[in-house]
């Protein structure tokens, strides 16, 4: 009995010994302190992350209406506007100077008497002419169209119109320019105060005179005269 018990104890001892040997071959587990790893991770993240910049104060919100679009002025247009303003100022200064140099305007009574005397004198001259030439009829009244025709004839004659064939035309180019400019002043000053027929005639005459001036001025040449030197 004791032999059997002993044998059984030896067998259990041998089995336990084999089991211990098997457990010694398995890998051992290592206990890791997670607090140290977490501290290291926090130090590394702190070194990699740049320091936070202080926040800028927000811009104050305007309580008034938002500004509208800004107008960009072209420099060329601004210079042109400045020149126009200078021209107007120069014209006003010249007009003021002319008004100061002229004698005072006649009164309404003086103008009325002068017109009556003129009409009587003109009628007397017309009666004398008709007495010398009974076939001549009365002179037609002078109207706006006669004024425009007078400017037209003066300008065309100054540009050599009406010259007989074979003769050299006598041209007054600067006089023609002055006549055309005077007619332009008349058109500007009477704007809005003419009938449709009067305005049409005035614009037609101005157009023809200006085109004739352009054609004539294109043919004008200046001879090449050598400059004179001192002592020659």
Q: TL;DR of this structure?
A:
The chain is mainly α and 232 residues long.
Q: How would you characterize this protein structure?
A:
This protein has a domain at 144-217. Helices cover 62% and strands 0% of the residues. The chain has 7 helices and no strands. The longest helix is centred in the middle third of the chain and has 27 residues, at 75-101. Residues 1-6 and 23-29 have low confidence and may be disordered.
Mean pLDDT: 76
Q: Classify the secondary structure makeup into a structural class.
A: mainly alpha
Strand content: under 5%
Principal-axes geometry comes out as elongated
Strand elements, count:
0
Radius of gyration over all CA atoms, rounded: 57 Å
Considering DSSP H and I runs of 4 or more, what fraction of the residues is helical? 55-70%
Query: What is the rounded distance between the termini?
Result: 170 Å
Encode the helix/strand succession as letters: HHHHHHH
Give start-end ranges of low-pLDDT stretches: 1-6, 23-29
Main β sheet profile: none
Number of DSSP helices?
A: 7
Notable traits:
232 residues; mainly alpha; 7 helices; 62% helix; 0% strand; elongated
List the helices and strands and how they pair.
Layout: H1 2-25, H2 34-48, H3 75-101, H4 108-132, H5 144-158, H6 173-189, H7 196-217
Helix pairs in contact: 5-6, 5-7, 6-7
């Amino acid at each position: 009995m004791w032999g059997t018990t002993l044998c059984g104890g030896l067998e259990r001892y041998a089995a336990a010994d084999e089991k211990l040997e098997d457990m010694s071959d398995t890998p051992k587990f290592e206990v890791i302190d997670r607090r140290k790893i977490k501290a290291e991770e926090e130090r590394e993240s702190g070194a990699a992350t740049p320091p936070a910049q202080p926040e800028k104060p927000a811009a104050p919100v305007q309580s008034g209406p938002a500004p509208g679009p800004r107008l960009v002025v072209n420099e060329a247009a601004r210079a042109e506007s400045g020149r126009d303003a200078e021209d107007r100022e120069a014209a006003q200064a010249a007009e003021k100077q002319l008004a100061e140099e002229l004698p005072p305007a006649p009164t309404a009574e003086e103008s009325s008497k002068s017109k009556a005397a003129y009409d009587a004198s003109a009628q007397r001259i017309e009666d004398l002419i008709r007495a010398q030439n009974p076939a001549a009829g009365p002179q037609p009244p002078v109207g706006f169209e006669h004024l425009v025709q007078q400017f037209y004839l003066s300008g065309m004659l100054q540009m050599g119109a009406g010259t007989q064939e074979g003769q050299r035309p006598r041209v007054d180019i600067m006089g023609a320019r002055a006549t055309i400019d005077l007619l332009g002043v008349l058109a500007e000053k009477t704007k809005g105060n003419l009938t449709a027929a009067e305005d049409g005639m005035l614009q037609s005459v101005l157009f023809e005179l200006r085109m004739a001036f352009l054609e004539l001025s294109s043919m004008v040449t200046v001879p090449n005269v050598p400059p004179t030197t001192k002592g020659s």
